[in-house]
């Protein structure tokens, strides 16, 4: 099988990039030839004789929005020239204008658009940034609908994404769910010295990790709930430049209990130093940080608005029905802060759940799907080998009767 993966990053340190990295590794293990249309590719993939990396350079363009448009144009031009050389094309959302056989959906912009609003009381610079984010989301929502219509199979990374896709008109019978995975060796239970991060010892310590420059991750509700839990400290991992939450922390009198750590590349070790994860994001198609925390043996407090909340059982954590309910979040924080035995039991249950969702399992499921679609296409090209059922969908929506 000749597989093509179209994505910006294919490397371990990027969320969507990690998914595609693991899929590529599994395809190589099975002996398939892979073409990678990407800006960055992990060095070990480049060294494989089964990999052809087509560099889609976007260097020099000023914003992510423009870089994405340039990537889409360049990748589309290449695919139009080389489509007949490929068996299966895997794309991610509206990353390219060319049709893909499998479209893996890690974010549904039209769903987030329902939650995002402009705050006209804030400063002009922030207003301009928010308008840029709104426009970026609005256009992506439009482009995604077209991309999803063109795919044979649309892969949702959670049941939440399935609902989002059905709401915008994707037929349920074309959707498959493949949950994201986790590195069970990298993220594992253990103990780390908090002094590495200048974090206080011998106090209950929660972790919040994510982009704290925008409201989507919902740090503001966490901070307001924290006011009512005086014994608890909070470590925050995320880029602080341009974040409004440092000032909010100060205004709430939480400076001594909230510890901003900046962007971290040592999250697996950091998770060994905390007692539980709090992550009630307003909108999260999956939320890798949740399953990473579970693999690290941590209880999780999240909200039903995160896709990975489906993994969190009552034995392993707490799922809030409303991500904006500060009172409910306060009660959840109080419960885990006050009961160490409960935290330990929940952490053990969380690890057991995470062990069922390795990157290897996820990658095998993707490649099984590619092989299934490739085999069906071969049947269609040789009618006497076709299955006895009515017809089989070919790439780009065409069909041939048996």
Give a description of the structure.
With 402 residues, the protein is an alpha/beta fold. The protein has helices spanning 15-29, 43-46, 64-82, 109-113, 124-150, 159-167, 219-226, 245-251, 267-271, 288-295, 326-338, 340-354, 359-381, and strands spanning 2-6, 9-10, 33-38, 40-41, 51-55, 88-91, 102-105, 153-156, 175-177, 205-209, 233-237, 258-262, 276-279, 300-303, 317-320, 391-393, 399-401. The strands form four sheets. A seven-stranded parallel beta sheet has the order 5-3-1-6-7-8-9. A six-stranded parallel beta sheet has the order 12-11-10-13-14-15, sandwiched between helices. Strand 13 (276-279), helix 10 and strand 14 (300-303) form a beta-alpha-beta unit. The radius of gyration is 22 Å and the shape is globular. The model is unreliable at 118-125 and 381-402 (pLDDT under 50).
What's the helix and strand layout?
Elements: E1 2-6, E2 9-10, H1 15-29, E3 33-38, E4 40-41, H2 43-46, E5 51-55, H3 64-82, E6 88-91, E7 102-105, H4 109-113, H5 124-150, E8 153-156, H6 159-167, E9 175-177, E10 205-209, H7 219-226, E11 233-237, H8 245-251, E12 258-262, H9 267-271, E13 276-279, H10 288-295, E14 300-303, E15 317-320, H11 326-338, H12 340-354, H13 359-381, E16 391-393, E17 399-401
Parallel strand pairs: 1-3, 1-6, 2-4, 3-5, 6-7, 7-8, 8-9, 10-11, 10-13, 11-12, 13-14, 14-15
Antiparallel strand pairs: 16-17
Helix pairs in contact: 1-13, 7-11, 10-12
